[in-house]
Amino acid sequence: MRRRLTALLLALGAVLAVPGVAGQAQAQAAGYRYWSFWQSGGTAWVYATQGPATARPADGSVDGYRFSVSADSQDSAKPRTAPSFSQLCADTPAKPGTKRVGVVIDFGTEADAPSGEKPPSPSASGCAAVPSDATSAEALAAVAKPLRYNSDALLCAISGYPRTGCGEQVSAGDPAPAESGASAPPAGKPSGAVGGEAAGGGPTLGLFAGIAAVLALGGAAFWQSRRRG
């Protein structure tokens, strides 16, 4: 009995220790390719709590947009420049009934670009003079047309970039869009596994959890057999 349990524990431990198996669990979906929306907190970018279609920035605000691949809002890439409102709107005089909103657009890196496309360079910035009740989307449209949205009002393209795709899931090591029609915007972590296999075909964390549970049960049985002995 002890020999069988020991052999079981060693075999399952070896499975967990194989680098290729562990690596497959980390090589699943890397995230989503999309435009993230930021607002200036005065000294740093802060991830916006509303989408640009509903956010209504105050006069003197600065909005930022960054195109990148990220798993969720916790690891989204920020715009790489953070000019102040005074820098962006120094040449735009205030007018009654309007507000001024600074806009910063970071088209991201070539590594984040869809297959066959290159991000415009350099990144763009400007000052939008819009009605006092205008949304961030309206401020963006004032300085960076054409914009493209999908049927769920997800911002897909700024100044025509990218030409296709909208919030599509991207697999690790594969920068090409999964579908040009796009999935929903990331609302947390990417979904994925069906049964013991992820969409990419590799083992998921559930599989490793099952192996760990077998190891734990095997260990308990081993020590119980020792006590009886």
Automatic annotation (TrEMBL):
Domain of life (superkingdom): Bacteria
Keywords associated with the record: Membrane, Signal, Transmembrane, Transmembrane helix
Region (Disordered): 71-91, 110-130, 167-196
Coiled-coil boundaries: none
N-terminal signal peptide: 1-27
Transmembrane segments: 205-223
The keyword Protein transport is assigned to this record: no
Biased composition, class Low complexity, residue ranges: 171-192
Full protein name: Secreted protein
Lineage, top ranks: Bacteria, Bacillati, Actinomycetota, Actinomycetes, Kitasatosporales
